[in-house]
């Protein structure tokens, strides 16, 4: 849990202080990515589709549907964990966005438009949280090499969604690193609480079947 919190806390402090070396790095990367993507409409369109499919609301819906599926399988405590993780991730993200209030990258001819403060990236935050919940729910049903496939798909989807944001010119690199870190922290923090749930919260759980 500390490993996820540390990069987020450090970046939050440096961005809030507008540390010049970090600001210069972010600006340079943002300009480089913009110059690569802006002249290529097909790439930009593909990135926009990807970022919508795995967008903030998509991941919220996936997370809540996963929690509902867990309830149907009588995995009540795990469903509570999933709901708590989504709630805390969104709460943490909103508080930090309003507190830091970082402006998004600005370009004369933007590729697409972003809404609200830039730090941390909500897409990166919810991609990490949503894919983490989906992976944790699916792991008991996977065996052998399929577990590695599950991990690869979940991590790949979260990372690629996060990377699409600076490529579209609506976030800085530090925004997505902070978002991913905060998402992992929300998962880990709620997981820690989940392991200490009172026995009554697990009384009606039914062990997930392995296939």
UniProtKB/TrEMBL annotation:
<dbReference type="Pfam" id="PF01569">
    <property type="entry name" value="PAP2"/>
</dbReference>
<keyword id="KW-1133">Transmembrane helix</keyword>
<feature type="domain" description="Phosphatidic acid phosphatase type 2/haloperoxidase">
    <location>
        <begin position="79"/>
        <end position="191"/>
    </location>
</feature>
<keyword id="KW-0472">Membrane</keyword>
<feature type="transmembrane region" description="Helical">
    <location>
        <begin position="54"/>
        <end position="72"/>
    </location>
</feature>
<protein>
    <submittedName>
        <fullName>PA-phosphatase</fullName>
    </submittedName>
</protein>
<keyword id="KW-0732">Signal</keyword>
<feature type="transmembrane region" description="Helical">
    <location>
        <begin position="79"/>
        <end position="100"/>
    </location>
</feature>
<keyword id="KW-0812">Transmembrane</keyword>
<dbReference type="InterPro" id="IPR036938">
    <property type="entry name" value="PAP2/HPO_sf"/>
</dbReference>
<feature type="signal peptide">
    <location>
        <begin position="1"/>
        <end position="24"/>
    </location>
</feature>
<feature type="transmembrane region" description="Helical">
    <location>
        <begin position="120"/>
        <end position="142"/>
    </location>
</feature>
<feature type="transmembrane region" description="Helical">
    <location>
        <begin position="176"/>
        <end position="197"/>
    </location>
</feature>
<feature type="transmembrane region" description="Helical">
    <location>
        <begin position="149"/>
        <end position="170"/>
    </location>
</feature>
<dbReference type="InterPro" id="IPR000326">
    <property type="entry name" value="PAP2/HPO"/>
</dbReference>
